[in-house]
Design a protein that fits this description.
5% helix, globular, 1 helix, mainly beta, 9-stranded antiparallel beta sheet, 9 strands
C-alpha cells in the first residue's frame, strides 16, 4: 500500500435503530453462556433509510468465558415506502463488572459506559435500496434486557 495515499476511512451517519426485545432465553454453552434475544419490533430512522423492524428476528449472543459478548443479529426492516430489507449484524460488547450488574437489573447501558460496536449489513432486492447491498457500516451500541439501540454509520 502506498503510504502517501490517505486510506483513513470516513464515517457518515446512516440511521439510528431502536429494537424492542420481547423475550430473552439463556442456556449454558461449551464456550460460555448463550443468550437468545427475541426482537419484538423496532424502528430505524435516518436521512435515506427509515422504517419499522418486523417482530420475529433475534440476536444470538454468546457471552464467552472471557466476558466478551459476541453478537449475531438477524432482522427484517420494512421501509416506510414498503421495501423489505434484511439486516445482519455481528459485533462485540465488553462491560465492566459494575455495568454488567446494572445490565442484569434491566438498566440501559449507554455507549459511553461500555464498549459496544457492531457491523450491520443490509440486503435488499428492491431497486430503491440496492445501494445498501454494497455499503459497509459500523454501529455504536447501547443495550439492555428489553432494548438495543444502534447509531449506524456508513464507512467511506
Amino acid at each position: 500500500m502506498n503510504p502517501e495515499i490517505d486510506t483513513t476511512p470516513t464515517l457518515e451517519h446512516l440511521a439510528d435503530i431502536r429494537l424492542a426485545i420481547s423475550a430473552v432465553h439463556a442456556a449454558p454453552a461449551p464456550a460460555g453462556t448463550r443468550l437468545t434475544y427475541v426482537i419484538g419490533g423496532g424502528r430505524c430512522d435516518g436521512p435515506a433509510l427509515s422504517g419499522e423492524f418486523l417482530a420475529g428476528g433475534g440476536d444470538w449472543v454468546l457471552v464467552g468465558t472471557d466476558g466478551v459478548s459476541r453478537l449475531d443479529v438477524r432482522a427484517t426492516l420494512r421501509t416506510d415506502d414498503g421495501a423489505l430489507v434484511h439486516v445482519t449484524n455481528i459485533g462485540r460488547v465488553r462491560m465492566s463488572p459494575a455495568a454488567v450488574d446494572r445490565f442484569r437489573t434491566g438498566e440501559l447501558i449507554r455507549h459511553d459506559e461500555m464498549y459496544g460496536r457492531s457491523s450491520p449489513l443490509f440486503d435488499s432486492g428492491d431497486p430503491r435500496y440496492q445501494w445498501l447491498n454494497g455499503t459497509y457500516t459500523l454501529a455504536v451500541n447501547e443495550v439492555s434486557l428489553t432494548a438495543v439501540h444502534y447509531r449506524v454509520f456508513a464507512v467511506g
